[in-house]
Amino acid sequence: MSRSILCAFAALLLALAFGCGSKGEPGAPDSSSAKPPTADPAQQGDADLTAFDPHDALTDEEASEIFKQKVHLTDTEQVGQFRSTRIENESNSICAMFQISSIPYTEEQFVSDVTEQAKILEAPVTEVSGLGGKAYFMGDMLMLHVANRWVQFAITKRPGLDTKAAAIRLANTTAPRIK
Q: pTM for the complete prediction?
């Protein structure tokens, strides 16, 4: 696995460890054992894919509606091979991480990486349809392939929030906008 991908995924999981509960109460991360994708840019063709900002796919207002509380997207950071942003509530507790690859992924490589991760982790993987591309839940983390990109959402658990439904709503909102 690429070291930069491992760093990106580790950052995602560490950030989620702080959680997003109501009134700032910590929540538990949904998928603490998932691994990052293993795409090799040399095998993926043109690595000059224009960096796509998660802010171009989701507004604060849309995220607030999904999480049923006022939230905002933080500044986007390049973390390894991903453009990454956090969705935080007013007390700056993290509700979710939203990452989009900044290198191209073929659908075949995406499916292969998800399958490999599931075997390594002995994790259940569920295919999800209707999101505009191949999509899978590994635990509560939603990973999808759209516009030749690896997109993933990790949502912190909190009372009253169906994390899988929230991830699907995020994907339905963002996927058509990702280029």
A: 0.73
